[in-house]
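Can't paste images in this forum, so I'm doing it all in text. The chain is below; anyone willing to post the predicted structure tokens underneath?
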Amino acid sequence: MVKLELDQVVMRRMKEDDIEVVKALIKEGSEGTENRLILHILTRPLCLFILAVLSSILRCLVHSFILALAIPVFLLIVFLKITMPRSTGVLGSSRPYWDYLGSSYRGTQDETLQNPYCRISGKTPVTKRPKRRISPKEKDKEVSTEKITPEREQTAGQVWLAECDFDIIGCIFRENESRAGIRRICRVVTGCWYRREGLGRLLVQSLEQRERETGAHRVYAHVPFPSKVGEVFFRKLGYRLLGEGTNNEDDEERNLETPERGFLGYPLTKVFYKDL
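Text version of the structure:
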């Protein structure tokens, strides 16, 4: 673990050049989450009953109890690996993949989030990148000519990066604005060397502040169903599990903001919310 000075963290929009680094960061941060979700589904009573029935049928066809038991489980795991959204990661999303290109920022000056720790310490994080020599391969590299329309950019949402000493150490994804005043955080990832240092909290709270200033009044976050760490994390930030309230407003919101569901309709995520 590396000691992180939070007042030196710069939070800016992802650019096209950052996409590959962000993908590697997500792969590292989401490692094991998909397997835990599959195990969660496999251990549900209805799923166990179906597997037992299939095993009994196969037992009549193959003269091996182990094969009759293993084949249905193996086929179901393969099916879940193929059909389960790859974007689940640390937080869930209904999108089967991310439009990284559409999410990237193309302004001339970096769009940044306000870092509250800078006001406390009085320090200013370094934002000017050192100049580096461009290799011939980079010069010859084709620049993406794919057209990004405002509609596509709106649908893709936003990706914000946490950068310290010019290294990307975390990111947070915000989905598109499908409802007025409603925002949805669909992924928070921090580098393995920078966990439990307050970086995830900094990303979420800074994004909340920005969305509050732009007129949002509620933020949702989807946490993978078996993830206790994610649940504790958002509860500490003031989020509540959707459905814990008993008023009519919560009943209406449950119809609009439902958890992601997988095989046999079992929920893959828990929905948390916070009023700004």
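The radius of gyration is 22 Å. The CA atoms of residues 240 and 272 lie 5 Å apart.
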